[in-house]
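can u pls check wat happens w/ magnesium ion
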Amino acid sequence: MTAVSEHPSRTVEHPLLEFDNVGKSYGNVQALRGVNLTVRQGEVTCVLGDNGAGKSTLIKIMAGLHDYTEGEMKLNGIERRFGSPRLAQAAGIATVYQDLALAPLMSVWRNFFLANEIRTGPLRMLDIEAMKSICGEELRKMGIEIPDLERPVGRLSGGQRQVIAIARAIYFGAKVVILDEPTAALGVKQSGVVLKYIVKARDAGLGVIFITHNPHHAFLVGNHFIILKLGRVVLDAHRSELTLDQLTAEMAGGQELAELSHELGGIDAGKVVAPHEVRHGGVGAPELDDSADGSADGSADGQPKGTA
Ligand SMILES: Nc1ncnc2c1ncn2[C@@H]1O[C@H](COP(=O)(O)OP(=O)(O)OP(=O)(O)O)[C@@H](O)[C@H]1O
Ligand SMILES: [Mg+2]
């Protein structure tokens, strides 16, 4: 499905970022093939998939770390190949890597301005006061409580670090922010903090790409869901076309589990296959029909497509 038809009011706009039949091989390894996807402003696009599915490869292409070998990547409708991460950043694509988001020994404000320092006077000295004041102001705007901006970032929680990296990306004018498994190493509460700022980044008008293994986290914040499997897109659906149950089943490999259960002769079928995994058509279904039951998970079942 093309997202354009889902958003009649936005048909004139180009999507922020678009993949058209993108493939990537590392020598003999075909890490991505025929990938189509669209990242829109003011939406959270969740990319899900198992280990080795190609998620990191996908974001490395967007972030300028790797080039693609087939197809086209377009930014604001124009084909682009970023030769380096710096060029991707200059084009407004910010990537928050799970562990490398910030420099642990440096203070909060220093991290905030890392590589973008404000300088002043003929000697181009660091304008520490200005940087601290802006950093404090920006974090406050995002509702982030960091009492001491001098504190080394390594002594903050994982969730706080992610959030600072998101605030920094927004302040420095990112159009697209990519979060690589930001909640993978976090507990429930800290994950909640990060999810909250994912929504803030979206509401600030960014296109957010949220890479995760966790369908529950994805469904809490996502507008649009893509599942990769062995380098291919096996599901691409808008929130209004999907329930959390279906997303979970797709992630769990509903079809494979059903087949496995069959192979096991039904001995453990009740344990192996949850009812919703059988009910739904499994991977490869590009379009989810409306036969899904209206489970009370907040999904917009029954809502006509195009009224997202
Ligand atoms: N630099 C590389 N050279 C060769 N093969 C690679 C390279 N990077 C990734 N691959 C291969 O490409 C495929 C996709 O890997 P990728 O890291 O994109 O998956 P992923 O979805 O991010 O997995 P994970 O959830 O484990 O991080 C895998 O088969 C992987 O072995
Ligand atoms: Mg990865």
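Residues 53 and 230 are 5 Å apart (CA to CA).
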